[in-house]
Amino acid sequence: MSSRPRTTAARALQIAQVMHDAIRAWQAANGQTPAPTWSRAPKWMKDASAASVAWRIENPDAPASAQHDQWMAAKKADGWKFGKTKDGKKKTHPMMVPYDKLPEFEKRKDALVNAIVDALK
Q1: How confident is the model over 29-76, as pLDDT tens digits?
Q2: How high is the pLDDT of residue 8?
Q3: Are 20 and 35 in contact (CB under 8 A)?
Q4: Residues 27, 35 contacting (CB under 8 angstroms)
Q5: Where in the chain are the domains?
Q6: Rounded distance, CA 21 to CA 100, Å?
Q7: Which of 99, 81, 98 lies closest to 90 in space, CA to CA?
Q8: Exposed/middle/buried for 22, CB within 10 Å: 0-12, 13-18, 19+?
Q9: Do 20 and 34 form a contact (C-beta atoms < 8 A)?
Q10: Rounded to whole angstroms, how far apart are CA atoms 113 and 64?
């Protein structure tokens, strides 16, 4: 039996799935419509989750605001912009705002994401 080391990308994808499931639970517990299950999530959503995880692994001491800045920069680079609703086809997202303008709910979700990655890396 081979004991090959996991690549960073493979590990990030594995953690991203756990993170995705936790965010779905967070959304449901807080009265939001949960994101689709991982198996039904669009590729852009999975890719964004994996990129956020990989960034956190590489920047473990960065504050949540830096994580949000990374997420926003990646979204902008992919053509996303602010919009009142999250729409993968139109590439709009209501959280495309500076970290200090995020609702407290979203800041707590970012902290949850960081805690999950920190615990599983």
Answers
A1: 989 899 999 999 999 899 989 989 999 999 999 998 998 999 999 999
A2: 75
A3: yes
A4: yes
A5: 8-71+104-120
A6: 26
A7: 81
A8: middle
A9: no
A10: 9
**Across residues 91-96, what is the average pLDDT?**
95
Residue 30 corresponds to which tokens in the numbers above?
A: 């807080």
DSSP string covering 42-95: -HHHHHHHHHHHHHHHH-TT--HHHHHHHHHHHHHHTT-EE-SS-BTTTTEETT
Scored b (16 or more CB within 10 A) or e, 89-113 reads eebbbebbeebeebeeebeebbebb
Amino acid at 90: K
For residues 102 and 115, give the distance between their C-alpha atoms in angstroms, rounded to a whole number: 19
Contacts of 121 (CB under 8 A, 6+ apart): 11, 15, 56, 57, 60
Rounded mean pLDDT, 1-7: 51
Q: How remote is the C-alpha of 6 from its chain's centroid?
A: 21
Question: Nearest 5 degrees, angle CA 33-CA 24-CA 12?
Answer: 140
